[in-house]
Design a protein that fits this description.
By secondary structure, the protein is α+β, with helices and mostly antiparallel strands. It has a domain of about 120 residues: Nuclear Transport Factor 2, Chain: A, CATH 3.10.450. It contains 5 helices and 4 strands. A 4-stranded antiparallel β-sheet has the order 1-2-3-4. About 15% of the residues are buried.
């Protein structure tokens, strides 16, 4: 044998051993199998499919996302972010509500929000949230922090970009 052949011999032997090992570990197609090994093979063949979520279904995750937008809008002192949780075309009296939010943001320079979802449900094509809100309002120019607490009921409809609030009760909570 040549020197070159001797250098390649370990690689050729390794490849042969690996090939043989693979053949021995794979069951032959016509070899009888025990029922437990057949079941194992069958499970391995089935593709794993994640459950498909119904994007139109309203659940606590969707509710938390919408209420998170409200909280983030208040705490960031961003009227635009807060109002992005609402659908102005479908909410009766939205312009009055928008003016109320503007006055609220003008009166206070900072907010701290604590909220807790009490209940979520879906009624036909609308999602409903009942939530407990606590807001600490920091007045503009200093002064005592005021507190506001109450249960709010939100009705939401599914839009192309997610769930949007179409009604809120009581409307005067942010005034």
């Amino acid at each position: 044998m040549t020197t070159r052949a001797l250098k390649l011999l370990p690689f050729v032997l390794l490849a042969s051993v690996l090939s043989f090992a693979v053949q021995q570990s794979a069951p032959a197609a016509d070899a009888p199998q025990s029922s437990s090994s057949a079941k194992k093979m069958e499970k391995q063949k089935k593709p794993v499919v994640a459950p498909v979520e119904d994007v139109n279904a309203f659940d606590e995750r969707a509710a938390a996302e919408v209420l998170g937008t409200l909280r983030d809008g208040l705490e960031a002192h961003s009227q635009r972010l807060l109002l992005s949780a609402f659908n102005p075309e479908k909410m009766d009296g939205f312009l009055t509500f928008q003016d109320q939010i503007e006055a609220y943001f003008t009166r206070y320079e900072g907010f701290r929000v604590t909220l807790r979802i009490i209940q979520t449900s879906q009624e036909e094509n609308r999602g409903v949230i009942l939530a407990e809100f606590q807001v600490e309002n920091e007045p503009r120019g200093g002064g005592r922090i005021s507190h506001r607490q109450g249960q709010l009921r939100f009705e939401l409809e599914r839009e192309p970009k997610g769930w949007k609030i179409v009604d809120m009760n009581p409307r005067g909570f942010f005034s």
